[in-house]
Write a structure and sequence with these properties.
The chain is of the alpha+beta class. The protein has 9 helices and 14 strands. The chain has helices spanning 2-29, 55-69, 77-82, 91-106, 116-121, 134-140, 168-185, 284-297, 299-307, and strands at residues 32-39, 42-49, 149-152, 155-158, 191-195, 198-202, 211-216, 230-236, 240-245, 250-253, 256-259, 274-281, 313-319, 325-329. The strands form 4 sheets. The protein has an 8-stranded antiparallel sheet. Helix 8 (284-297) crosses helix 9 (299-307). The longest helix has 28 residues, at 2-29.
Amino acid sequence: MKNKKLIWQLPFLVLLIIGTIFIIRQQQSVPYQQNNGLVFGTTYSLKYQCDSDLAKGVKDELLKVDNSLSPFNEKSIITAVNINKDVELNDMFVSVFNKAMEVSENTDGAFDITVAPLVNAWGFGFKNGTNPEKTQIDSLLQIIGYKKVVLKDNKVVKQDPRIMLDCSAIAKGFGTDVVANFLRSKGVKNFMIEIGGEIVTSGINEQRLPWKIGVTKPSDDPLGDKKGELMTILNVTDKAMATSGNYRNFYYKGGKKYAHTIDPKSGYPVQHSLLSATVLADDCATADAYATSFMVMGFEKAKKFLEKHPELMVYFIYSDEKGNNAVWFSPSLKDKIVE
């Protein structure tokens, strides 16, 4: 009886095996597309497995984000908000605003989308390298603070009309998420999206392996000879990754190094040992915002914060007591480190 049952089951097993082989071969025959371009004042790059080129759809999605969140776009929603023009908010703006407020609350204000006037005052907005006076900083602090803006009846309500919003520390991550969701809506399962260093991956690459993403080594080399050297490589699959680093944007004045990361509470550039924060999360807007937050917090505060947030995986590069680069990473990240 057992032998008869086995004989009857054999054709079904053969069909199952043939079907599986057919599906695998079909998947392997679908090409990987590649798109590149400029957006948000930076570059973007995509690789995805799809029968058709989705470049136009990708550009359309990025334009929607730009029209919502770019302070350099005169017709964007955020520009209208900043000049106190009556404007109807869309889902993208509301989603990013709410995420920003959530991260600000979680980090006790280390993340703050109202900090732009201070950033500009310190010379990074206009690249003038001028140290602001203490009186100017004190004055600007009056219009800085995430608790001074709220959403009410689909409008941004400010405590002071001079308050300006800048979502640059979360918009690239959000834009990467938007493109990822667009690809998923088209049935694309294998892809890697990168916008200005913020990344979302899904599935596998052309070699049928997890996507490999490099973490750049901090370098103060003014000639750029060491630019692009990697500290490590991570296997990143079905995750989002964002990096923030003081070594990427700073200037020297009076023999002191001033970072582009401004503490929204003190009004001054942060001065601590953390050089780079790479964050892995389920979505890139979250990873982007927390990467900036950790640069404001510094190494020790960030580590304490992470004890209560195991859902975030991080790779920190910091300067040790001897001034050498040192590394600390979440235990859960260990299996993703390639080298």
